[in-house]
Amino acid sequence: xxxxxxxxxxxxxxxxxxxxxxxxxxxxxxxxxxxxxxxxxxxxxxxxxxxxxxxxxxxxxxxxxxxxxxxxxxxxxxxxxxxxxxxxxxxxxxxxxxxxxxxxxxxxxxxxxxxxxxxxxxxxxxxxxxxxxxxxxxxxxxxxxxxxxxxxxxxxxxxxxxxxxxxxxxxxxxxxxxxxxxxxxxxxxxxxxxxxxxxxxxxxxxxxxxxxxxxxxxxxxxxxxxxxxxxxxxxxxxxxxxxxxxxxxxxxxxxxxxxxxxxxxxxxxxxxxxxxxxxxxxxxxxxxxxxxxxxxxxxxxxxxxxxxxxxxxxxxxxxxxxxxxxxxxxxxxxxxxxxxxxxxxxxxxxxxxxxxxxxxxxxxxxxxxxxxxxxxxxxxxxxxxxxxxxxxxxxxxxxxxxxxxxxxxxxxxxxxxxxxxxxxxxxxxxxxxxxxxxxxxxxxxxxxxxxxxxxxxxxxxxxxxxxxxxxxxxxxxxxxxxxxxxxxxxxxxxxxxxxxxxxxxxxxxxxxxxxxxxxxxxxxxxxxxxxxxxxxxxxxxxxxxxxxxxxxxxxxxxxxxxxxxxxxxxxxxxxxxxxxxxxxxxxxxxxxxxxxxxxxxxxxxxxxxxxxxxxxxxxxxxxxxxxxxxxxxxxxxxxxxxxxxxxxxxxxxxxxxxxxxxxxxxxxxxxxxxxxxxxxxxxxxxxxxxxxxxxxxxxxxxxxxxxxxxxxxxxxxxxxxxxxxxxxxxxxxxxxx
Length: 737
Fold this sequence. Notes:
Strands 15-14-13-16-17-18-19 form a 7-stranded parallel beta sheet, sandwiched between helices. A 6-stranded parallel beta sheet has the order 2-1-3-4-5-6. The chain is built from 29 helices and 25 strands. The model has no long low-confidence stretch (mean pLDDT 90). It is an alpha/beta fold. Helix content is 43%, strand content 16%.
């Protein structure tokens, strides 16, 4: 008793302190300061309560973003999160004041619970929708409709400043709601009003969480109500806004207490009893507001549960938890005829609905007089609630809603974000799938989280460590893009697993290098294969008996087209562009400069662009450019007459195609990567790898034959016209579904 008394004193002091501070801040600092300081207070409380989860270390399916405490937060965030986890999804709960933009990388479904609008909330939601994330607003009360609350007694008692603050809160909740794609309501009454602002709303009823079911089962074991002739009628008020509701049953209760001397009343929570109950003081017990965890023990102390509510449009939004919580303890409930209770209670089987004072008296009288009826109704109510309101059962409804309405999730696992033809293809796939409504992400093996060289690339980039070991329940496809990423994809939770093969990557290594065999083994894996070139498709079939789907590479015509050159060409000189890393053997840049040595330096000028190594001392290089931004490459192509490309090994060689798009001509070494589109003498001039004499003569031909040059330029433009990314993404959509 002493411990409980101290606790009550502590609660009273805290309540008095908060109330005093609220009025002080409102009077002296204004409504905005009150909102800010109230938010700070709740943040501290929530963090201390353990009701939110810690910072995520893995990408997950969903995130609840809450703006509430205690029971409402439990039912709409903690318990709904439990529903989704029981049905195979992963997720977290965070408080709205901790909102961070990086959450957009790590989660795919955002559920805002009663969060009022703020600038950062608005920005976050708009970005989430742009990334094709699913954004849901969840609410369990009709506190977003002014017309339904303006006449409530607790609102009428507010002063003008309080009303202004209250109605501003209503507007701000509604504004956040209107920004969201979808809505979740706890009852049909709420859903009906939400649909005025959000077209697609799910009714997801408050479930019975596993922990409550267990504690209720234990409380049943300890139930003492059958050890006495006393019939305890219970009323669990909750908040102090239920005085009007209790008035509905006062007359019926007075008659019952007069008729049944063994009947008593047990009131839990806030309630102002009228004077008519003074004469029953010795038969009325009261208990203060209790923690959720202690509720089953108190419910077990009653024989009959009462759930009166004034029937109104506002109260049609109230849920049936007073029925479900009592049913778990096999306690029969008499409830008002609100929509939620009408849905939940099967009249005469699992409880009773009372529409007027006579029905309250008649049904309460029957239950008091008939112990067998109480037991029968209570038993059936428990069975029904466990069957219909269990976490997994209710959660299937929520899962199906999300699965039906979410965008498909596609992840590409890339070695890095560094500029290269292979990474450019990955980025184009992701960016263009995103533009078509897919929820795409890039996972980087080296931990990069930015791709800065492609304009308008807004696909989330997640480091390797956040992806490995994550159990994402809604990952439709994961795509490996290099041999070193295949194991990551195979061990993922993706529903379908692909390997986009862009080259014979084992040939990047010497045969005695362990990576040679490791890379080669990935071409014989249990995975679906994709390729970007016909030669690669044929090679997989011939050498590994693997079928693959061919996705032709496109070209970004908005980026690659002829533009104003960086500088004017020198009179009488032909400018040759060489692109490639001199330190990469398969780029074969040395051969390009051996060809340059065969040309007249008075007649030819040479530019080199590299994204890695620098020019060697013996190179005859007039200008050197390092790590040119992808978006600026068209300026360099447009500044040159001829592209000389001498790679030994390419999956798909992009620079010649880009040069064609910018109105230039190409001389290329023949390899599988350019065989996709190079036609010697039609859109480019080709030579056999290593034959530097012939390569030099091909370049000389272009300077001597203006008709040939014109023909190649026209052929190149036609080749570019046939390389549409839209067609490629059409194929990808057919593959991914």
